[in-house]
Specification:
2 copies of one chain form a homodimer.
Chain A lengths: L8 E6 L11 E6 L5 E6 L7 H9 L7 E5 L8 H19 L6 E5 L8 H16 L6 H7 L8 E6 L4 E7 L12 E6 L5 H13 L16 E6 L9 H21 L7 E9 L2 H12 L2 H8 L5 H8 L12 E4 L2 E5 L2 E2 L12 E7 L5 E8 L3 H8 L4
Parallel strand pairs in A: 4-5, 8-9, 10-14
Antiparallel strand pairs in A: 1-2, 2-4, 3-9, 6-7, 7-8, 10-15, 11-12, 11-14, 12-13
Helix pairs in contact in A: 1-2, 2-3, 5-6, 7-9
EC number (chains A, B): 2.3.1.35, 2.3.1.1
Enzyme class (chains A, B): transferase
Keywords (chains A, B): Acyltransferase, Amino-acid biosynthesis, Arginine biosynthesis, Autocatalytic cleavage, Cytoplasm, Multifunctional enzyme, Transferase
Chain lengths: 385, 385
């Protein structure tokens, strides 16, 4: 049910030919209220796509009536014409719904530099068609329409005590959040204020999407939006809602990881006993971005030397001669030296666990990444041509 | 002639079985004076190999009698035993040459975590054999013995006005300098003080090896050493010597780039009109480390959107809607939007030139990198296993 699992939402996904395959490429999610509020987090890439520039402004008052998302073109680096396209899309959807364009969020995904007149007309036509197809069970159709190189749609639902959170996500490459990554729409019928929605969303993305770093490449178009209808009439217990939102976000993040372009391994890099949580994240991310480490995992090679070499490039406090490294449960490195023979490590399963013990403090964090494979290179050497 | 091109040096390279292939794996370069001075720069990776820990201490007084280098094992993360091995190697070579062990530099390269008793004995035996084979024409033999995954030895020579600089280098992976990268030995018969040698070396590496970033992975063992014999008796003109040293370093850096593991393209990323040189370097390095950009070049795809997305992750001042990007001479992006059709760009030559105009100031820098290829993944997924 995706984003229409909670009460108060309608959605649709339609095909207008933005994708050469003819698959669905425009999605609309409408908040029927009674609350029409929301929050969003955006890519921290300073090269931001036109829809990001629009949506960042539009979300500031906390009001969200609807969101329109297209695949098949990022509308990024398309100049003033591209921003006008985003603006026209918001105005067009606002007109169809008889609401203010300032309460419309716009997201685009696909090839950077795509956003000509043909693109504009298709997005506008798709918005019209999607509004005509709006359905209280349209969440799955919307999840299909936002896919790019994804092999499958990503949706998640969690039920609370009288309220529900639903979500959909897309993303298979350029997966490295600075604040948020990929396109994600979350919906809830819980009763929240705009400030509560914002706080919950930032807290949940910080420990879910922000811990995913598939390929170190931060996108220009990433946005995670939470829409609140309040249709359940239930004001949730704060801790329970926070936990449920983290559950939905983590579920979607893991789905993104397991569908990452060309990946053979889903790698969880768990950093324990760091001096601070920031240190743990920095160490995990440094390992996650090390191509030699990532290629070694592809080759089922427990090359812990590359793990330590990557830690050495961080600013985190650590003693190279105190660090322990486990791979899939085998202690391959103790106190910065060899321990168990590498032959004992079985790296054939897709799920891979690397545990790094810095022995500096009490903080920990897990970063989720993928291996570097022939298929990753193949898919990304042929994307736009 | 490599490191024996200048007067006052002898060198040798021998095979002792550190490499399973039986190829040469221990090199020694001896400074016969009359000056016995030198300077060195080291990896800024905080996880430093044992030879780095030794050599950093030994170089502090500016005295260098000889350097011993082994391939076939990095002696990194091998604990106190590994440091003892380095110490014993320095003492052993010092004894053979009847000099102080404090004037011996030691370098190791190969798999991290390799440094057991067999390794130790072979390095000591190799040192003995290399000293017995020392020759005033031994530079090329030494250049062969330091190779790991290199497909060919790297040497360079520049003649000045009465003096000469020679050099050899090895390195084909983990090529991303933080201060220096790879193993490099430079020699000169010019008359320099230790302070002059140090200043020249730092200035030259800053604009040569420090601008090479093949795969973003910083090594634990990198060292660039300059040995000064003064045997020509000529005190060089400062500017001319600096320029010649930069020429030798750049020559070796380009040789390293063109032999990078699995690479199909040698990419020069030229950043112009940056607000500062640091900004230009940061922008160039960010693009050089972007896997999506690197895979696109492998696929002969002039995907300038990935260039701009990479710039957006830096802290350098720039306006995304002012940037121009040229690829192999074709202006594919003007003022942050599409310009010439991508079909006009020919990316089939190995030499690739990307020019980024930030339009912020007068500073510029060029970063040298490689593409991300199937062969890179293949070679690095099978290195240690």
């Amino acid at each position: 049910m995706s984003v229409t699992a909670p009460q108060g939402f309608e959605a649709a996904g339609v095909a207008v030919g933005l994708k050469s395959t003819g698959k669905p490429d425009v999605a609309v999610v409408v908040n029927r209220g009674p609350l029409k509020i929301g929050a969003a987090v955006f890519t921290s890439n300073r090269a931001k796509a036109n829809p990001i520039l629009w949506s960042q402004q539009a979300i500031q008052d906390g009001g969200v009536e609807a969101i329109v998302l297209n695949s098949g073109g990022a509308n990024c680096f398309t100049g003033a014409f591209g921003f006008q396209t985003t603006h026209m899309t918001a105005e067009h959807l606002a007109g169809l719904l008889d609401v203010s364009s300032g309460d419309i969020q716009v997201c685009s995904t696909g090839l950077i530099g795509t956003g000509d007149e043909v693109f504009r007309q298709k997005v506008l036509d798709g918005t019209t068609a999607a509004v005509a197809a709006l359905d209280a069970n349209g969440g799955d159709a919307a999840a299909l329409a936002i896919m790019t190189t994804d092999s499958r749609p990503k949706t998640a639902t969690v039920h609370g005590d009288g309220w529900t959170i639903g979500g959909m996500a897309k993303g298979a490459g350029m997966l490295a959040p600075g604040l948020a990554t990929m396109l994600v729409v979350l919906t809830t019928d819980a009763v929240l204020t705009a400030e509560e929605a914002d706080a919950h969303l930032r807290a949940a993305t910080r420990v879910s999407f922000d811990r995913l770093d598939s390929d170190g490449c931060m996108s220009t178009n990433d946005q995670v939006t939470l829409m609140v209808s309040g249709a359940s009439g239930v004001t949730p217990e704060t801790t329970a809602f926070r936990a449920a939102l983290i559950e939905v976000c983590t579920d979607l993040a893991v789905q993104l990881q397991s569908d990452a372009e060309g990946a053979n391994h889903d790698i969880a890099i768990e950093v324990v006993h760091a001096a601070s949580e920031d240190d743990a994240v920095e160490v995990g991310r440094s390992v996650a971005r090390n191509n030699l480490f990532k290629a070694a995992i592809f080759g089922n090679d427990p090359n812990w030397g590359r793990v330590l070499a990557a830690i050495g490039t961080t600013t985190a406090p650590f003693d190279p001669y105190a660090v322990d490294v486990d791979m899939n449960g085998v202690r391959v490195c103790s106190n910065g030296g060899p321990d168990q023979p590498r032959e004992l490590v079985d790296l054939t399963p897709r799920k891979t666990h690397v545990r790094i013990d810095l022995k500096e403090g009490e903080a920990s964090a897990t970063i989720y990444t993928n291996d570097l494979t022939h298929d990753y290179v193949h898919e990304n050497s042929a994307y736009s041509s």
